[in-house]
């Protein structure tokens, strides 16, 4: 028991050191992937292919998620607003929440869960087949050839998915708030624009863009550094999704806090 207690600080230090090493490697891969962005000719074809793949695997799930989210927010906000006698303000609550918080987070989690897991599996399979080492032997940097197009593809699709979430969630909220709860369409859309500014939409798209980079960088890092064998790839996929979720929510908090300090909300 004494030996176990004596070794506990050492284990904590080793785990902390390992976490710092992994964080440093993640940033190295991310920055190295961005460093050769200017050489578009070497990764343009892979970028188009990855954009199409990520959009194909996430477009239907994003619709199935966004519409119920908008409907749920509309029902909850509508019940509270009806009790307060302010049903016309439901549209403001629904659209403001969809644009400022729900849309970028939903698109990022879908990119991570659907597209990011596929990216991790692909990079992990290349790793255990020694394809990454073979590319290095041939003088090809695997980060420039594989990671760079996936970073830009995930960020681009994340921005597009964010727009789809906003439109779908607003449509779902409109149906339940206007059709089911009897609020007039004019009051719904007038309230929707009362709390929003153009900068809110810009920051939302910026957050989705950043979250796409985070999801792709974590997925590529986890796949390129996974343990050998199918079990290692499966653990890397699970790790990538969990780490991406933590980083996305942390980045969302920081960006939202800075934005609210720099740009006061409209009342």
From TrEMBL:
Give me the Gene Ontology terms describing cellular component: ATP-binding cassette (ABC) transporter complex
Q: What InterPro entries does the record point to?
A: Permease_MalE
Q: Which residues cross the membrane?
A: 151-176, 208-228, 240-262
Q: Which GO terms describe its molecular function?
A: phospholipid transporter activity
Keywords of this protein's UniProt record, alphabetized?
Membrane, Transmembrane, Transmembrane helix
Pfam families of this UniProt entry? MlaE
The protein depicted here goes by the name ABC transporter permease
């Amino acid at each position: 028991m004494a030996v176990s207690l004596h070794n506990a600080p050492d284990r904590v230090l080793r785990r902390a050191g390992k976490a710092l090493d992994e964080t440093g490697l993640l940033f190295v891969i991310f920055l190295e992937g961005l460093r050769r962005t200017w050489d578009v000719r070497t990764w343009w074809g892979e970028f188009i292919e990855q954009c199409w793949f990520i959009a194909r695997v996430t477009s239907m799930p994003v619709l199935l998620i966004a519409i119920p989210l908008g409907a749920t927010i509309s029902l909850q906000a509508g019940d509270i607003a009806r009790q307060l006698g302010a049903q016309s303000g439901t549209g403001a609550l629904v659209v403001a929440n969809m644009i400022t918080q729900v849309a970028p987070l939903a698109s990022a989690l879908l990119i991570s869960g659907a597209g990011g897991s596929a990216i991790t599996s692909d990079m992990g399979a290349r790793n255990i087949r020694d394809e990454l080492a073979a590319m290095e032997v041939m003088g090809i940097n695997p980060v420039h050839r594989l990671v760079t197009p996936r970073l830009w593809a995930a960020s681009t699709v994340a921005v597009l998915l964010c727009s789809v979430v906003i439109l779908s969630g607003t449509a779902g909220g409109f149906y339940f708030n206007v059709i089911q709860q009897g609020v007039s369409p004019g009051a719904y859309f007038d309230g929707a624009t009362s709390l929003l500014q153009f900068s809110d939409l810009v920051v939302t798209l910026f957050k989705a863009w950043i979250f796409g980079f985070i999801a792709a960088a974590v997925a590529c890092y986890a796949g390129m550094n996974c343990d050998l064998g199918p079990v290692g790839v499966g653990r890397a996929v699970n790790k990538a999704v969990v780490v991406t979720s933590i980083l996305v929510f942390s980045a969302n908090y920081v960006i939202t806090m800075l934005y609210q300090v720099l740009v006061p909300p409209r009342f």
